[in-house]
Amino acid sequence: MAGLNAASERYDVVVVGTGFSASFFLLGLLGRARRKPRVLVLEAGPRVKRAELLKARRFVHTECARYFRNATPDKPWVFSRALGGGSNCWFGSTPRMLPEDFQLRSRYGVGEDWPLTYDELEPYYCEVERIMDISGPAEPMPYPMSRPYPQPPHQFSEPDRILKAAYPESFFAMPTARARVGNTRGICCNNGVCHLCPVDAKFTIENGLPELFENPSVELVCDAEVTRLETGADTVSHVVFRHQGGEHTVACDLVALGANGIFNPSILLRSGMDHPQLGKGLCQQVGVTVMVTLAGVKNFQGSTITSGLGFNGLGGDHRRHRAGFLFHTVNRASNIGLEPGRALAQLELIFVIEDLRQPENTVIIDPSDPSRPRTSHRNHSNYAQRTVDALPSLLPDLLRPLPVERIAITEMRRSESHIHGTTVMHADPQQGIVDKHSIHHRFRNLVVLGGGNFPTASPANPTLTISALALYAGRHLMS
């Protein structure tokens, strides 16, 4: 580490973060490079082995609030600050976005179009699904697929089977990075603690891409928090970070920010890279939990925590005036009831509703502590709220195939654990921070990665798309 004190220390590439976006970008970069670049990877958190976490029964995302100030604490933001980033605590659900999710403005007249299409990203979806060894349906999905899922689908519960029979073209087994069959990882045991999988069935950076940080051309430094970038002539020249109580500066030819949608914009803001859209539009999907009491049908036969995925609310012209949604059927053991003879009568559904960026929802530098970002999320969009309001009238018809005794909307979920919109991509440099390849419009040797680039918050769990976009970015730079 001694050499890192000197500004003369130079790397071809500095990668900030080790989560999905940073790791898949690095994979794309190294896989296509004609010569192996000298890479420095800076991870703000520690390197914590899964075995240590299991022994301590500790999760690496539980203290995330200490790293930023939340001005609207009713909207928590969840992330993992450790080697592997969000792969330490994600639940592993991996549906793709639909083609129309990339074209909301042109198809439905709302939100924004993405500057790339589904077809451009589709080969990278396939590659990430192969690397993650995704379990998914064999039949055609609502989105086109040029390759099948690597693993067979997880087992349905009885309510799932009924819904599949009623909705053969819109209800499917949940695509997931929780293994269905043995291969390189364990098999999902369906115990519901997916944020720290006890049998290592879920894909993580540690179990899926360990070779990245063992590559001889890659130097990994943990507990290294990037504070700012130094620039000159519209080029990033140096990365400044804190490590072991001191400040270090390294020179580089290329920087890739893969911190997340809170810390990427705060690094850019602290670096003087102001833009009207930077830090604006902080958002995520809107979640609603529904509990269904079934009559004469038992639940919980599925082989993973979220066994079914319904697309019934996603297609159609209703998206011109209210948001589309997906719904998940939940196989969580904590829902087993105590009533004699009715223990398996409960079915939890999670409705995940798309949202649009709102300019008043922001990430800024905390005025009281410039070393930390501050988040503020005043509300989700009226577009999403119109679907929330419509749910009570939509549910009876949607659930008609099931023997329903009672339907209860039990909660608006506080967080979907995703962070979008703060470094938005757009074809127009005046409207976005990065282009479709995640390259900064002004500083062309700077790549900004992750969910912060999303112009809209699609109902699909975003990690697969984040990873595909990062692989796409890395491959593009080496093409």
Account of the protein in words:
The protein is α/β, with parallel strands linked by helices. Helix content is 20%, strand content 22%. The chain has nine helices and 18 strands. The protein has helices at 20-32, 50-56, 104-108, 118-132, 158-166, 205-208, 263-270, 382-398, 463-478; strands at 10-16, 39-42, 69-70, 171-173, 218-221, 224-232, 235-243, 246-257, 286-294, 306-310, 325-330, 346-353, 355-356, 362-365, 373-376, 404-413, 446-448, 456-457. The strands form four sheets. Strands 1, 2, 5, 6, 7, 8 and 17 form a seven-stranded mixed sheet that branches. Strands 4-10-11-12-9-16 form a six-stranded antiparallel sheet, with helices on one face. A three-stranded mixed sheet has the order 3-15-14, covered by helices on one side. Helix 1 runs parallel beside helix 9 (463-478). The chain starts with 9 loop residues before the first strand and ends with a helix. The model has no long low-confidence stretch (mean pLDDT 93).
Topology:
Blueprint (H helix, E strand, L loop, with lengths): L9 E7 L3 H13 L6 E4 L7 H7 L12 E2 L33 H5 L9 H15 L25 H9 L4 E3 L31 H4 L9 E4 L2 E9 L2 E9 L2 E12 L5 H8 L15 E9 L11 E5 L14 E6 L15 E8 L1 E2 L5 E4 L7 E4 L5 H17 L5 E10 L32 E3 L7 E2 L5 H16 L1
Parallel strand pairs: 1-2, 1-8, 2-5, 3-15, 8-17
Antiparallel strand pairs: 4-10, 6-7, 7-8, 9-12, 9-16, 10-11, 11-12, 13-18, 14-15
Helix pairs in contact: 1-9, 4-9
What keywords describe this structure?
479 residues, alpha/beta, six-stranded antiparallel β-sheet, 18 strands
